[in-house]
Structure formats: C-alpha cells, structure tokens
Amino acid sequence: MTRLTNKTAVITGGTTGIGFETAKQFVAEGAQVILTGQNEERLQTAVSELGEAVIPIRADVRSLNDLDVLAAGVKAEFGKLDILFANAGIGLFAPLAAIDEGFYDDQFDINVKGVFFTVRNLLNS
User: Fold this and answer.
1) Which of 34, 75, 78 is closest to 57 using CA atoms?
2) What angle do the packed helices 17-28 and 40-50 form, to 10 degrees?
3) Which domains are assigned to the chain?
4) pLDDT tens for each residue of 22-43
C-alpha cells in the first residue's frame, strides 16, 4: 500500500521499539521519514535497516536546541510536515524513597517537556 506517498513524517525516538516499527510501516506506506534519536550509533543502524526513505537527525528531546535544529531541518528539507509521531519516551521505575531529583528530571524532561516542545517547535516550523 502507498497511503503515505508524498507525505513527510517525523518520528522522535525512532531507533528502537515502537518508533522503529512505526518508521518501518510508514516507509512501506510510501512516506519520507525523518527519524530522530539521541544515540548516533543506534540512529545510523536504524537508518541503514530502513533504507533511503529515511533521513536521520540526531536529536535529544530534552534539549531545546536539538528541537530547534530538528524543526529547522524539517523546514529546510521539506517545507512542511504532514505527520508527527512524538514517540520518544522512557519508563523508569524505583521505590519512592530511592527517587532523587535527577531521576525525576529525566522522566519529566523526556516524557513531558520533550513532547510539549517537540510539538510546539514542529507546529511552528
């Protein structure tokens, strides 16, 4: 099928798991996919497996600068965005007494701040 032909999609956290499988499906459906991840090695591995329809942009959703670079890259390369899958996220668990500020910040910086600013930046690009 080619339901996504001539569509541009951004998938954050697309190097493994749900993001990677979604990228596979989007490519099979004809989309041009911009794949992000914070780890350059995993990003390159994912892109080599997914093929030419995938453009890698290393971005950590915790970094507003990285999200600015991502938005600028999307605008420069495609001019518009059709699909955004704000997928980057983590799930870390610990006993309440063991949770410190760094643990808390990692969870919220990725799962809340990252999603909010990803959507905001890409809607404005």
Assistant:
1) 34
2) 30
3) 8-123 (3.40.50.720)
4) 999 999 999 999 999 999 999 9
Q: Which two tokens stand for residue 51?
A: 């093929």
Inter-residue contact 9 to 33 (CB < 8 Å) = yes
CA dist., res. 115 & res. 80, Å (int): 19
Three-class SS state of 39: coil
Closest CA to 22 of 92, 83, 110, 81: 83
pLDDT score, position 39: 95
Question: Which residues sit opposite 84 in a β-bridge?
Answer: 10
21 sits in which H/E element: helix 17-28
Average pLDDT for residues 105-114, to the nearest whole number?
A: 96
**What single-letter DSSP state applies at residue 55?**
E
- Say what the pLDDT of residue 1 is: 64
Of the pLDDT bands very low, low, confident and very high (cuts 50, 70, 90), residue 124 is confident
